[in-house]
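Before a colleague's protein record goes any further, I have to sign it off. What it holds is a sequence and that sequence's fold in token form. My question to you is simply how this chain folds and whether the tokens agree. Thanks in advance; the entry in question is below:
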Amino acid sequence: MDEITSSRSVYVDAHAHLDEYPDTWLGAVLQQLEDDRIATITTAMAPSAYERALRIEERSRWVIATLGVHPWNAHHFVTSLDEIEPSLAESPMFGEIGLDFRNVHDHTLYDAQERVLEFFLCAARDEDKIINLHTSGAELEALELLERYDTRRAIVHWYSGPLEPLRRMVARGYLFTFGCELLSSALIQQIACEIPPTQVLTETDNPGGPQWVFGEPAMPDVVKPVLQALAIIQKRDESDMREQVRQNLLTCIDGDTRLTPLSTMLHGRYV
């Protein structure tokens, strides 16, 4: 197989939570990543999740683990961020981080979310790292923090908010992931139409994302119907859409030596 053919057979899952799979599933999950050549960024909702993700990364050449504190968990860590700081340097990007004012109804927790997000945005700026960002119900607030910290590279996960902040994020050059809700939601389909082809990525948010949309968790190959739907919406041939997604992520990580393993995956150099 030549490199062009090889690379085009690579799928991208730019946002998953492999640490959340039970041990009884994990062997089959990792085998499917290998068989279907799915380059996977597994994001962490807490430092303990990152530690498990690192152990999973050791088991698969198709996995890259990243450190984050999900906004749902921010209040548990806001007073102990100094304990997280030593782990910042080893993580090649940060995620899942962000704000959530839609699913978190207790307004007294929003300050903790913002402080934790600022902690990671500051580190991302200082270390020039990509972030994997959650914005649910707080799209404008998240954007204002991205602007304040001059965030250069961001992967915006499962955007479902208004179009005005979206367009400002697009203008800043950020990438946007689309997952299984693309298969059923008119809103998500409309958002997918708004994003230039050069700024789209595919994701699964496995296993919790499919659980929320379909009522049950999914295996990594759920990324395939997501890619098919994205190709239809963007009026692209499926193979061209797969190649576009691959190139989009490669462009985002270009020159970042901390992400050489991810670059290797995306170039399809594994045989």
